[in-house]
Design a protein that fits this description.
265 residues, alpha/beta, 6 strands, 34% helix
Length: 265
C-alpha cells in the first residue's frame, strides 16, 4: 500500500511540472547574446565600411561556441562586408554560386600560412577591392578545411608576419602568437585598407567581453606554449601540439623564414 501511495505522489509531482519551456533571458537583437552580457555598446558608432569584404569559411563546430568573436566582426562592419559560409569543405552543394565566384576571383586573397604566402603588407591596395578569405575554427579545423577544399589551393595566399599578443585572454591559445578570428581580420583589414580605425574600434567589443567574463569568475588563460614551458600544463602533449611548438621555436630562432604564427578562433 505504501508503495502505491508513493507512486501516486510521484505521478502527482510530475503532473504539476509546467508544460511550457523555462523563460529565457531576453536577447539583444543585434548580437543575439543575453542583454546582460551584450557587448554592442562597444561597437563602432557607425559600422565600418571597408572597400573590400571579409569572407569567413566557418567550421560547423565554431558556431556552437558561446564566446566566439566572428559575430563582433559581422555586426561591426557594414552590411555585406562580412560574409559567413559554414561547412567542412568549400564550396559544396549548400553554398550559392556567389561563393564559387568569390573563390575564383583574382581579387580574392586567402589568409593561410603556406609556403607560397606573401606578407599582406606587400599587397597593393590599388589592385582591390579584395575579398579576404579567413578559415574560422581551431588550427586542426582550419587545416582540415584547407586540405579538403581544393578550390583554396590555387588562390593567392597571404600571411600576417607579426601578429603580436592576443587580447582574447579568456581562451587558451596554442602558442603565444595566435589570434582570434576578430583580431586576425582586424590586422589584415588594417594592412589592406591602410586604416588604423579597424584596430582602434573593432577590438573594443572583445575587451568588453573579456572584462565581463573576468569579473564573473573567469580567469586569464596563458597559451599552451607558455604553460608547457613553465611545467604547468596538466595534460600529456600530443604529437600535433608538439610539432606546433617546435614550429614556433623555429620561427623565434629564425623569423626570416616567413612562417605566420596565427590562429583563427
Amino acid at each position: 500500500m505504501a508503495d502505491v501511495m508513493l507512486e501516486i505522489s510521484a505521478w502527482e509531482d510530475l503532473a504539476n511540472i509546467p508544460a511550457d519551456p523555462p523563460r529565457m533571458r531576453p536577447l539583444c537583437s543585434k548580437c543575439c547574446r543575453p542583454v546582460q552580457v551584450c557587448w554592442c555598446a562597444a561597437l563602432p558608432p557607425e559600422p565600418l565600411n571597408p572597400a573590400g569584404r571579409i569572407v569567413l569559411l566557418q567550421h560547423p563546430a565554431e558556431e556552437k561556441r558561446s564566446l566566439r568573436t566572428a559575430p563582433m566582426l559581422s555586426v561591426g562592419l557594414a552590411p555585406g562586408k562580412c560574409l559567413i559560409y559554414k561547412g567542412k569543405r568549400f564550396p559544396n552543394t549548400r553554398h550559392d554560386a556567389e561563393l564559387e565566384a568569390i573563390l575564383a576571383d583574382k581579387r580574392s586573397l586567402l589568409l593561410y600560412p603556406s609556403a607560397s604566402s606573401v606578407p599582406i603588407e606587400q599587397i597593393d591596395p590599388a589592385g582591390g577591392p579584395y575579398n579576404l578569405i579567413l578559415l574560422d575554427g581551431t588550427w586542426p579545423q582550419a587545416k582540415a578545411i584547407y586540405h579538403c577544399s581544393t578550390a583554396l589551393h590555387g588562390m593567392r595566399q597571404v600571411k600576417l608576419v607579426s601578429s603580436g599578443t592576443s587580447s582574447y585572454i579568456i581562451r587558451t591559445q596554442p602558442t603565444e602568437g595566435c589570434l582570434s578570428t576578430l583580431e586576425t581580420a582586424i590586422q589584415a583589414l588594417s594592412a589592406l585598407e591602410r586604416d588604423d580605425r579597424y584596430r582602434e574600434q573593432l577590438l573594443q567589443p572583445l575587451h568588453v567581453l573579456c572584462q565581463y567574463q573576468l569579473a564573473n569568475g573567469a580567469v586569464t588563460h596563458q597559451s599552451k606554449e607558455f604553460l608547457i614551458r613553465h611545467n604547468q600544463y596538466p595534460k600529456l602533449i600530443g604529437r600535433r601540439l608538439n610539432r606546433l611548438l617546435k614550429h614556433a621555436d623555429n620561427f623565434k630562432d629564425d623569423p626570416s623564414d616567413g612562417t605566420e604564427r596565427k590562429n583563427s578562433t
